[in-house]
């Protein structure tokens, strides 16, 4: 079987590696050049995009910000999974908010702003602690602004005057207090079968995910039921096929949707060693019409992102349950270079592995390792 992935980054690479044992041949599309490339070697193929579409058994994406004309071309083939509506919704916060409202899914109080002059009204309605998000092309903390007090509103408004808010509106959200962020990675098959990995707890630094732990500590049945119910509503409304990630803020006993990602997701990387079938294989199974794999965790697992840093050896691989996934990129600030997966039979064992990993790595680039190791060692 052949699967064509729009986007040629690390997620396409990991799908390629997951597909090889199944005999699934994964090719990627560089969406800038529209060339077909090998997701691992980056070698450019001499076949055309139209030929690749014709000969693919399924087409999917590794990220949602694919040029719309390419998505429309792929959708015409009848092989695009998930569908174009789901991908466009994940790429546009306004579409996403409207979907959540239509389905009565709890999310942060917000206003859509397409003129700077509307910010005053947003403050009146939502308060003077706000986060402003570009509705498109924002990720890892980019395309976001914060208002911490009303007196800063004129300066903030001035900084936004050069933006075309009619073309790319802002989603202005009330800055929500929450206990933690959790995410649910699940998948839906072509036949409508749905499976879930356990909720993961996510720790961020400067707008980027640094650590995910799964299953999240202190989970209860109510939180799991809420998350899975919301996933089902979204997946069925979008007639979704493939892996879908839903990020939540936990506020007391309630989950509020922060955002959705119509693809394999960074907070699901732990599944490569921590679950019977990883998210990359399950995505390929779903889009190819194959049976979904077992999502049960093998123990307790964590993913630790490597961001903007490559100056380390490999001695940490002596840590039991430690695995490195390296993406082969040139280092740049804030660039995801790879990740470590750690695993243990319990939280204390995982915390000890995390403590040991922190001994090999600088805290400036891995700011959560020490504190998270201590926390996990205290979880029963």
Automatic annotation (TrEMBL):
Quaternary structure annotation from Swiss-Prot or TrEMBL: Homodimer.
Sequence similarity: Belongs to the PurK/PurT family.
Pfam families cross-referenced by the UniProt entry: ATP-grasp, PurK_C, RS_preATP-grasp-like
GO cellular component: cytosol
The reaction(s) this protein catalyses: 5-amino-1-(5-phospho-beta-D-ribosyl)imidazole + hydrogencarbonate + ATP = 5-carboxyamino-1-(5-phospho-D-ribosyl)imidazole + ADP + phosphate + 2 H(+)
Record-listed E.C. numbers: 6.3.4.18
Known pathway: Purine metabolism; IMP biosynthesis via de novo pathway; 5-amino-1-(5-phospho-D-ribosyl)imidazole-4-carboxylate from 5-amino-1-(5-phospho-D-ribosyl)imidazole (N5-CAIR route): step 1/2
Gene3D superfamilies: 3.40.50.20, ATP-grasp fold, A domain, ATP-grasp fold, B domain
InterPro entries noted in UniProt: ATP-grasp, ATP-grasp_carboxylate-amine, ATP_grasp_subdomain_1, PreATP-grasp_dom_sf, PurK, PurK_C, PurT/PurK_preATP-grasp, Rudment_hybrid_motif
Stretches assigned to the ATP-grasp domain: 97-288
Protein name in UniProt: N5-carboxyaminoimidazole ribonucleotide synthase
One annotated GO molecular function: metal ion binding
Organism: Bowmanella dokdonensis
Function: Catalyzes the ATP-dependent conversion of 5-aminoimidazole ribonucleotide (AIR) and HCO(3)(-) to N5-carboxyaminoimidazole ribonucleotide (N5-CAIR).
Primary enzyme class: ligase
Keywords: ATP-binding, Ligase, Nucleotide-binding, Purine biosynthesis
Entry's Gene Ontology BP terms: 'de novo' IMP biosynthetic process
Keyword Ligase: yes
UniProt entry tagged with the keyword Ligase: yes
Binding site for ATP: 93, 133, 138-144, 181, 204, 258-259
Top-level division of the source organism's lineage: Bacteria
SUPFAM superfamilies: Glutathione synthetase ATP-binding domain-like, PreATP-grasp domain, Rudiment single hybrid motif
């Amino acid at each position: 079987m052949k699967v064509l992935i729009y986007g040629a980054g690390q997620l396409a690479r990991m799908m390629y590696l997951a597909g090889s044992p199944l005999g699934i041949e994964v090719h990627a599309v560089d969406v800038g050049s529209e060339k077909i490339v090998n997701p691992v070697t980056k070698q450019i193929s001499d076949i055309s995009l139209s030929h690749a579409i014709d000969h693919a058994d399924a087409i999917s994406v590794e990220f949602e910000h694919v040029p719309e004309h390419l998505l429309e071309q792929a959708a015409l083939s009848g092989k695009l999974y998930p569908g174009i509506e789901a991908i466009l919704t994940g790429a546009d916060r306004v579409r996403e908010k409207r979907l959540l409202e239509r389905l009565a899914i709890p999310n942060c109080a917000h206003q859509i702003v397409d003129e700077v002059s509307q910010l005053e009204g947003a403050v009146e309605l939502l308060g003077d602690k706000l986060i402003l998000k570009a509705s498109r092309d924002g990720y890892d903390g980019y395309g976001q602004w914060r208002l911490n007090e009303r007196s800063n509103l004129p300066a903030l408004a001035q900084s936004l005057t050069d933006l075309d808010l009619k073309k790319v509106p802002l989603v202005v959200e009330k800055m929500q207090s929450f206990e933690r962020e959790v995410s649910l990675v699940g998948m839906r098959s072509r036949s409508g079968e749905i499976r879930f990995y356990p909720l993961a707890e996510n720790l961020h630094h400067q707008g980027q995910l640094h650590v995910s732990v799964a299953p999240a500590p202190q989970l209860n049945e109510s939180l799991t039921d809420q998350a899975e119910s919301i996933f089902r509503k979204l997946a069925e409304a979008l007639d979704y096929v493939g892996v879908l990630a839903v990020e939540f803020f936990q506020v007391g006993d309630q989950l509020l949707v922060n955002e959705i990602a119509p693809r394999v997701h960074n907070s699901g990387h732990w599944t490569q060693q921590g679950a019977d079938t990883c998210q990359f294989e399950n995505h390929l199974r779903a889009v190819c019409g194959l049976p979904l794999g077992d999502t049960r965790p093998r123990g307790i697992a964590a993913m630790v992102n490597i961001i903007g840093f490559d100056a380390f050896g490999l001695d940490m691989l002596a840590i039991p349950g430690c695995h490195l996934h390296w993406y082969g990129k040139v280092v740049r600030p804030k660039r995801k270079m790879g990740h470590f997966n750690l695993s243990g039979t319990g939280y204390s064992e995982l915390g000890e592995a995390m403590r040991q990993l922190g001994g090999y790595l600088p805290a400036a680039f891995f700011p959560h390792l020490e504190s998270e190791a201590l926390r996990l060692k205290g979880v029963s």
